[in-house]
UniProtKB/TrEMBL annotation:
One of its GO terms (biological process) is glycine biosynthetic process, by transamination of glyoxylate. Its cofactor is pyridoxal 5'-phosphate. It comes from the Archaea. Belongs to the class-V pyridoxal-phosphate-dependent aminotransferase family. It comes from Haloferax mucosum ATCC BAA-1512. This is Class V aminotransferase. PANTHER family: ALANINE--GLYOXYLATE AMINOTRANSFERASE, AMINOTRANSFERASE CLASS V. InterPro entries: Aminotrans_V_dom, PyrdxlP-dep_Trfase, PyrdxlP-dep_Trfase_major, PyrdxlP-dep_Trfase_small, SP_NH2Trfase/AEP_transaminase. Residues 38-339 form the Aminotransferase class V domain. The keyword Secreted does not apply.
């Protein structure tokens, strides 16, 4: 006999989210999600769709017509980008220097592409000379790179040079901007990126569910002239074009509340101003960086490729990173994360993204992480960390 489940009221803990994502969500975004539903073809919702596309173009820094929120998490926009652009038999060049370069490779293979890699150690960006050599050897049709590698805390600094190399070989460029959109300088048009995708739950501080994607006319022409349809019906841009293009015809039921949410999150970006938002992330993350370094901790990447939105802090020798992560969660309701792949257990991944990129959160992080490391006997100077943090924040 099936009995009625005794399930209590939903009361999740009130965490401070400073891991690799999601980030804290602005109250205005949460309120937007609670507003009444309308139909996904309702005239009022069509106007909301128009707003989202206009705001998304502003944040991507592009005039691309084909700029949409994909229904799903950041991996959905990633799969839409790669699955539509890559045709069976094409050669796809992807990086080896992080976890999400590996995910690019997996998706390209599932799309029928032949994957080749340009190598760099985890924790370092791609070198332009190595990318040039890979193009000369393999002549790829598509080149994917990760602008902000969430697994290593590395920002790819030489994007215009990489796109120049790719386009000199008539290749298409796909950029993973999941941890950079809305928090780190990104110029899709000026940097000549063909396709860029992101997730809403990082620097946009929006619950996952509607994920930004933009394609140039050149890239969309390739998608619409494919010899074979993409293997995914749900993510087929030639079909989604009917819903997000001029027709606004039915394809699937859009995640209406998530579209409300991303519209409000993008409105917050526009109100702050994208350059000001980049500056805030740089300043607040700079205070975090100064604080942990003054405590005696290092960062995994060098300063020239440091990623303000995701700080890869090296765990001291003899410290169990997972124990420290559990400590700050239990004692401070503060979420940070360990490394992935080759850096698992070696680093703390500390996000400074969107609504989470606030001075009070950095102060909490320095105190909580310092206490967690001291509890394991690490030699850290928390007072010096606070002084260094205040020094950076006081400058602004």
């Amino acid at each position: 006999m099936i009995t009625t489940p005794a399930v209590g009221e939903l009361v999740p803990p009130n965490r401070t989210l400073m891991g690799p994502g999601p980030s804290d969500v602005h109250p205005r975004v949460l309120r937007a999600m609670s507003t009444p539903l309308v139909g996904h073809l309702d005239p009022s919702f069509i106007e909301i769709m128009n707003d989202v596309q206009e705001l998304m173009r502003y944040v991507f820094r592009t005039d691309n017509q084909w700029t949409i929120p994909v229904s799903g998490t950041g991996s959905a926009s990633m799969e839409t980008a790669i699955g539509n652009l890559v045709e069976p038999g094409e050669t796809v060049l992807v990086p080896s220097n992080g976890y999400f370069g590996g995910r690019m490779a997996s998706m390209a293979e599932r799309a029928g592409g032949t994957v080749v890699r340009v190598d760099a150690p985890w924790g370092e960006p791609l070198d332009s000379a190595d990318v040039q050599a890979a193009f000369d050897e393999h002549q790829p049709d598509v080149f994917g790179f990760v602008h902000a590698e969430t697994s290593t805390g590395v920002r790819q600094p030489n994007v215009p040079e990489l796109t120049r190399i790719a386009h000199a070989h008539d290749a298409y460029v796909v950029a993973d901007c999941v941890t950079s959109l809305g928090g780190v300088e990104l110029e899709v048009d000026d940097w000549d990126i063909d396709v860029a995708y992101a997730g809403p739950q990082k620097c946009l501080s929006c619950p996952p569910g509607a994920s930004p994607l933009t394609l140039s006319d050149r890239a969309m022409d390739k998608v619409l002239s494919r010899e074979h349809p993409t293997r995914s019906w749900y993510f087929d841009l030639s079909l989604l074009e009917g819903y997000w293009g001029d027709e606004r015809s039915y394809h699937h039921t859009a995640p209406i509340s998530n579209v409300y949410a991303i519209r409000e999150a993008l409105r917050l970006v526009a109100e702050e101003g994208i350059e000001n938002r980049w500056g805030r992330h740089l300043r607040v993350a700079g205070a975090l960086k100064a604080g942990v370094e003054a405590m005696g901790l290092g960062l995994n990447p060098t300063d020239d490729c440091w990623l303000p939105s995701l700080n890869a802090v090296v765990a001291p020798d003899g410290i169990d990173a997972d124990d420290a992560i559990d400590y700050v969660l239990e004692h401070y309701d503060l979420e940070i994360a360990s490394g992935l792949g080759a850096l698992a257990g070696d680093i703390f991944r500390i996000g400074c993204m969107g609504y989470s990129a606030r001075p009070e959160n950095v102060a909490l992080l320095v105190a909580a992480l310092g206490e967690a490391l001291e509890a394991q006997g690490a030699d850290v100077d928390v007072a010096a960390g606070f002084d260094a943090m205040r020094g950076v924040l006081g400058d602004g």
